[in-house]
Amino acid sequence: MRPHVVIIGGGFGGLQAARGLRRSPVDITLIDKRNFHLFQPLLYQVATGGLGPAEIAAPLRSLFRKQRNARVLCAEVVDIDPQACTLTLHDGHTLRWDSLIVAAGAAYHYFGNDEWVQYAPGLKTIEDAQEIRRRVLSALEAAELETDPERQRAWLNFVIVGGGPTGVELAGALAELAHVTVRGEYRAFDPRTARIILLEGAPRLLTAYPEPLSENARQSLQKLGVEVITGALVQQVAPDHVVYKRSEEVFILPTRTVLWAAGVRAASLAQTLAERTGAPTDRMGRIIVQPDLSVPNQERIFVIGDMAHYAHQTGAPLPGVAPVAMQQGQYVARRIRDALQGKPTPPFRYWDKGDMAVIGRKAAVARIGRLRFTGWFAWLMWLFVHLMFLVGFENRLLVFIQWAWNYFTRNRRARLILGDSRSMSAVIDSTPVKETVV
Fold first, then answer.
1. In this structure, is residue 232 part of a structural domain?
2. In principle, which of 95, 255, 320, 425 could form an S-S bond with 306, CB 3.0–4.6 Å?
């Protein structure tokens, strides 16, 4: 029998690992809770109506149709037995593996305040993006119906928590949606009066970027009308307001729409794997892996992507971004190929190609090696790189056409409210919350 390689997760890392073994004498089973690969970096455009879900997703079975040694299972892994080399699926079925690659990703972390989830959705799945889009567009509809000025202002306050790449890109897209795209479409209020407020606990945005790029991003957001508040620590998220502390002052900000982009935590499967193998984890729940990305004392179990804490290269863990996961997936595929041939594999080394974040129309920041780019050129670079990273020619073509249409018309055609928009208009309290400093 040929060795059986099981890959948990059809994201960037899992996809690259499976493709890296396409010519190897192994049988591959890729397991994912969803039947599609999702291009997460563009989720914020689905959330703000710029793209549709199908344009940034590709069916996994279609991607592996011609790879004869791979099959896809749409299932959820609930347990792993490292001694028996088996795993258990949600329906009770078990699979045996010879090599296991765990790339189940991450979820948003609310720092012990899980009750905030219902009021401040994160952005990790297509469902998250559709929920954010529903809340944003429904807030505008509720403001059109509202006759009380204080309540109307609360509907038009959009708060984003977290000043990393996701928060910055979401804030810029939301500002363009409210201040440009829907301008002139409402009669009871001017959408340009909508406030987009970005709260970041650190002293500056994009802390992983060089300070000049961080400052450029802040200035670009402010030109779009985004209120950037750094050093702001969120203390409470409620249905109709947010409480945050800055220096020694506590602020109460009325809002009905809060979006969370502040922190992530490894998927729950990481905790299961740590319990079964005794592997150490960090405070974000990630597995602390060996130099070859294997779990300590488990040379046939590999963890990659957002679930892996790899600090052997610089002393600091690698960031949870797509290029890291892709290179780790390629490395583990090579590691398995070498093992089949009895060859040693050097430790994993990440090649940092740079970072990019888009702020808005013709505005972006990019770092490539020692080079720094901003503005129009960085924006073009961002467009090109993201088009190339998209899986499938059809998706690239559709996204390119949609981006061109959005650029020339400033329209976002995917502004559809899915779900019951009326549920957001329910009266929460007879007295509207006012913006105050405690």
1. yes
2. 320
